[in-house]
Amino acid sequence: ALAQYAAEDSTYRSFAAETFLRAGATFIQRRDYARAVELLSRGRPWATAEMAPFYANYLGRAELQLITSELLRVSDQRDCQGARRADTVLTRVRENLVAGMSVDSQRTAMMVESVLPGYVDNARRMAEAYCRQQQPQQRPPARRRP
């Protein structure tokens, strides 16, 4: 609350951004990824150029953790819209990880090159399968008899 209040005054925005960044990192360590995403998303608009890669990296990592359980839920419920949302979130995860590559290049590159493609493939396969199942079956047009 204090950081949000401080951000209302433009002279304290970098202080607020640093506070949100630290809080987001703490919640990642505690494995409270939803709270980390919330705090990092709130503080990111005030981030300085030096903080921007950290925000991007941490957001990408936290959202990647969240999408893991979301993909399990989508699979269990055969959720067409959930699969489409997951695909969109994974695009954002990739963008964030690439933007934050300088923070931890080796581990982040491994995530982008090795981990993320499997998640993206799964989300797209689920969207294709589950969305196809939700569409009403179309009957072929009746043949005309001569």
Descriptive account of the structure:
- The chain is mostly helical and 146 residues long.
- The protein has 6 helices and no strands.
- It has helices at 2-7, 13-29, 33-43, 52-77, 80-99, 105-134.
- It is elongated, with a radius of gyration of 20 Å.
Helix content: over 70%
Instruction: Extract low-pLDDT stretches.
Output: none
How many E-type strands? 0
Order of helices and strands: HHHHHH
Instruction: Profile the largest sheet.
Output: none
Described by its quaternary structure, the protein is single chain
Question: Characteristics of this structure?
Answer:
single chain; mainly alpha; 6 helices; elongated
What is this structure, in a nutshell?
This protein is mainly alpha-helical and 146 residues long.
Secondary structure elements and pairings:
Blueprint: H1 2-7, H2 13-29, H3 33-43, H4 52-77, H5 80-99, H6 105-134
Helix pairs in contact: 2-3, 2-4, 3-4, 4-5, 4-6, 5-6
